[in-house]
Amino acid sequence: MQHQPDFLDAISEVQGGLEVWRASKSVPRRIPPEIWGKAVRLASVFGVGRVSQALRLGYTELKRKMPSHLPVARTAQPAFLELISAPPSVIEYCSFELETSRGTKIRLELKGVPASGLATLIREVGN
Predict the structure, then answer these.
(1) Pairwise CA distance, residues 58 & 56, whole Å
(2) Could you tell me the residue ranges of all domains in the chain?
(3) How far out from the chain centre does Cα 62 lie?
(4) Which residues pair with 91 in a beta bridge?
(5) 51, exposed or middle or buried, with CB in 10 Å at 0-12, 13-18, 19+?
(6) SS (H, E, C) 45-65
(7) Reported pTM
(8) Hey, CA dihedral for 99, 104, 109, 110, is it positive or negative?
(9) How far apart are the C-alpha atoms of 82 and 119, rounded to whole Å?
(10) Which parts of the chain fold into alpha helices (H)?
(11) Crossing angle of helices 33-46/5-24, nearest 10°?
(12) How far apart are CA 39 and CA 53, in angstroms?
C-alpha cells in the first residue's frame, strides 16, 4: 500500500508514542487517552481503516471513539427542483342523500367528480 508523505508525517508522531507505550508495559493496560485522541484526529482526516492499520489499533475500537458529529461534506443545492404529483383521483360515480333538520331531503348523483371537489361539497353542505 502506498502512503502519501503527509500521512506518513502525521502518523509518525503517534506511531512513536504508541511504540514507546507498548514497549514499556509489563501487564495489559489501556491505551492512554492522549494517544486515542491523536488517533481519532488522524482518523477524521485519513480514515479509520487506514489509521487503525498503520497504528495497529482495533478498527472497531477506533471507530467507536470517533465523534458522531463530524462535519458532513455538503453538496451543491439544486437550482431547480421539479415535483411530479400523482394525477388527481376522480370518483366515477357517487350518490348520496341529505336531510335537513326541517325534514327537507335532497338526493345527489355525481359523475366524474374530482375527490377534492367532493370533499369540498360535503364540507360546504355540512355547514
Answers:
(1) 7
(2) 5-65, 90-126
(3) 22
(4) 113
(5) buried
(6) HHCHHHHHHHHCCCHHHHHHH
(7) 0.49
(8) negative
(9) 27
(10) 5-24, 33-46, 48-55, 59-65, 115-126
(11) 160
(12) 11
Nine cell digits for residue 74: 455538503
* Amino acid (1-letter code) at residue 75: T
- Whether 9 and 45 have beta carbons less than 8 Å apart is answered as no
pLDDT tens digits for the chain (127 residues)? 455 558 888 888 888 888 888 888 677 778 888 889 899 988 888 888 889 999 999 998 988 888 875 554 455 677 777 777 777 788 888 888 878 788 888 888 888 888 888 778 777 776 6
Inter-residue contact 94 to 113 (CB < 8 Å): yes
